[in-house]
Design goal:
It is a single-pass membrane protein. It is found in: Membrane. It holds the Pfam family LEA_2. Helices cover 25% and strands 47% of the residues. It has 217 residues and is α+β, with helices and mostly antiparallel strands. The protein has a domain of 147 residues: Sandwich (Immunoglobulin-like), CATH 2.60.40. Strand 3 and strand 4 form a beta hairpin. It is elongated.
C-alpha cells in the first residue's frame, strides 16, 4: 500500500478531540436553572410557614353542644315531626388569630337522613373568645326506615333518648394582625343523645355537654 493511501485512510477515521456533539444542549441548562428556582421557592415558602406557625401557634376552634331541647319527635306513616333547639359554643383558643365565619350551614341528621338545614348569620370571632350558635330545627320530613334502622328507632322511642347528629359546614378565613388569609371549609360533626321532653318543657339537666369533631380537610 502506498504512503498516500495510508494517509487517506487515517484521515477518514481520525476525529479531533473536543468536537463531539453536545447531546444535552441549552435545554439542560434551562431545566437545571428551573429546578434551582423551584427548590428555592419551596424552601422560602416552607420557612415563611414555619415562622408564622412559631409566631402565632394556631390551634383549632373547639365546638361543643352545651344544650339540646327536643320537644317533638314523632314518626307516623314515614313522616317525622320534629322540634329541636340547640346551643353550640365555638371557642377560639388563639391569642393572635381571629376567625371570620363567612358561611355557616347547620343541618340536623337522623339515621344518615338530613331532616333540615339552616343558614346562620356570619360573624367575626376575636382572640380568646367564645361564640354561641343557636340553630333551631322544626317541621315535618319524610323519613324512610326499615330493618335495623326501624328497630333502632323503636328502641330509642322506648328509651325516650334519640341519637341525632348535627353537622356544621363552614367557610372561614383567618386574621393574623391586619392580614386575612385563606378560604377554609372545615366540617364539624356533633353526635348527640337527646332526651325527648314529653310535656314540651326543656330539660337541660338531662343533656350532657358534648364535644364535636372538626375536620379541616
Amino acid at each position: 500500500m502506498s504512503g498516500k493511501q495510508q494517509t487517506h485512510s487515517n484521515a477518514v477515521t481520525y476525529h479531533r478531540p473536543g468536537h463531539h456533539h453536545n447531546r444535552c444542549g441549552s435545554g439542560c441548562g434551562c431545566f437545571t436553572t428551573f429546578l434551582k428556582v423551584l427548590i428555592t421557592i419551596i424552601i422560602v415558602i416552607g420557612l415563611a410557614v414555619l415562622i408564622l406557625w412559631l409566631i402565632f401557634r394556631p390551634n383549632k376552634v373547639k365546638f361543643h353542644v352545651t344544650d339540646a331541647k327536643l320537644t317533638q319527635f314523632n314518626l307516623t306513616d314515614n313522616q317525622l315531626q320534629f322540634n329541636l333547639a340547640l346551643n353550640i359554643t365555638a371557642r377560639n383558643p388563639n391569642n393572635r388569630i381571629g376567625v371570620y365565619y363567612d358561611t355557616i350551614e347547620a343541618a340536623a341528621v337522623y339515621k344518615d337522613q338530613r331532616l333540615q338545614t339552616k343558614w346562620l348569620p356570619p360573624f367575626y370571632q376575636g382572640h380568646k373568645t367564645t361564640a354561641v350558635l343557636s340553630p333551631e330545627f322544626s317541621g315535618q320530613q319524610l323519613l324512610l326506615l326499615s330493618g335495623q334502622g326501624l328497630a333502632q328507632f323503636n328502641s330509642e322511642k322506648l328509651a325516650g333518648v334519640y341519637d341525632i347528629d348535627v353537622e356544621l359546614n363552614l367557610r372561614i378565613r383567618l386574621k393574623f394582625g391586619a392580614i386575612r388569609i385563606g378560604k377554609f371549609k372545615p366540617k364539624v360533626n356533633c353526635e348527640l343523645k337527646v332526651t325527648l321532653s314529653s310535656d314540651g318543657s326543656s330539660a337541660p339537666s338531662l343533656f350532657q355537654s358534648t364535644g364535636c369533631d372538626i375536620d379541616y380537610w
